[in-house]
Amino acid sequence: MLELYDIEIGSRLLLGTARYPSPAVLTEAIRASRAEVVTVSLRRESSGERAGQGFWSIIRSLGVRVLPNTAGCHSVQEAVTTAQMGREIFGTSWVKLEVIGEDDTLQPDVFGLVEAARILTADGFQVLPYTTEDLIAAERLLRAGCRVLMPWGAPIGSGRGLNNLYGLKALRAHFPDVPLVIDAGIGVPSHAAQAMELGFDAVLINTAVAEAANPVAMAAAFAQAVEAGYAARLAGPMEPRDMAAPSTPVMGRAFLG
Question: How far is CA 212 from each of CA 9, 35, 193, 194, rounded to the nearest angstrom?
Answer without folding.
Answer: 26, 17, 18, 20
